[in-house]
Amino acid sequence: MTLPLGLTFILALMLSMIARPEVWASSSLQASAEQTVVQVFTTPDESSLVIESFRDGQSLSPIAETTAAGGLKWFMVKSSNGNIGWIKAGANNTAKKIDSHFRSLPNENPVIRATGPAESGTKGATAIPVKVSGSKVIVSVNFNNSTAANLLLDTGASRTMISSRIAKILRLQSMGSGTGYGIGGVVTVSTSRVDSIRVGEMERQNLLVMIHDFSLDPSYEGLLGFDFLSHFHLSLDLQKSLLVLTPRKG
Predict the structure, then answer these.
(1) Helix, strand or coil, per DSSP, at residue 189
(2) Best CA proximity match to 244, nearest among 78, 75, 154, 112
(3) What is the C-alpha to C-alpha distance for residues 165 and 168, in angstroms, rounded to an integer?
(4) Which of 18, 52, 166, 220 has the fewest CB atoms found within 10 Å of its own CB?
């Protein structure tokens, strides 16, 4: 008996799937991954603004990890477009790759206990109390071992920024002007140099800073930028209001 052409094709397809199920499973997983969309949020909160979306599998640069409300893990990342934000941990390949990176670190991002800066639980690490206000993380920063100021944590800012009041106390002289990028967008600023910037026990010396009065919020007077933060692994515990900094090796 001769089968119709359409029925013959269906039977051949079924026989092929039975003979090589792993091929079809692999194709199905690949198609599923291509359809998965990964979103980058401004804060570790799905109700916050989405700053970028892309298909699963894109390469991202890991910056920090945190455990947000409900015990859900989030990762701070930088995309190939230069955007910095948060992605949620999950079953997609992108999140798995970032999670694998932090798991490979030798205890540099421990479970943080609410014990204080001297007991961060990791050799070389320091835990610093921070103030969390909505999506803002505010940290105390010491300049030149003499003047402390509250700054907003901003990995999207290329350089640390301070107010003119702090610059005056430090007796900083303007070295010129430049363009600053951060939470508030693009601004024209004065630049100067400080001998040291210290957060907890972590210090960097001889850094260029920007001087600009951008904040209308009296709770902070500048931005702690990527020029300082890039030298450390960051771990944020928003529930316990702690920031852990561990020096990057090399």
Answers:
(1) strand
(2) 112
(3) 5
(4) 18
d(CA 230, CA 80): 17
What is the rounded distance in angstroms from the CA atom of residue 180 to the CA atom of residue 34? 36
Q: Which residue has the higher pLDDT, 12 or 87?
A: 87
Bridge partners for 62 per DSSP: 77
Q: Which CATH number applies to 37-104: 3.60.15.10, 3.40.50.300, 3.30.1330.60, 2.30.30.40?
A: 2.30.30.40
pLDDT computed for residue 180 by the predictor: 60
User: What secondary structure does DSSP assign to 124-156, as a single string?
Assistant: T-EEEE-EEETTEEEEEEEETTTEEEEEEE-TT
Q: Which helix (H) or strand (E) holds 50?
A: strand 50-55
pLDDT 10s digits, 141-186: 999 999 999 999 887 778 899 999 999 999 999 898 776 655 555 6
d(CA 233, CA 168): 31
CATH 2.30.30.40 residue ranges in the chain?
37-104
In the chain, which residues fall in CATH 2.40.70.10? Answer: 117-247
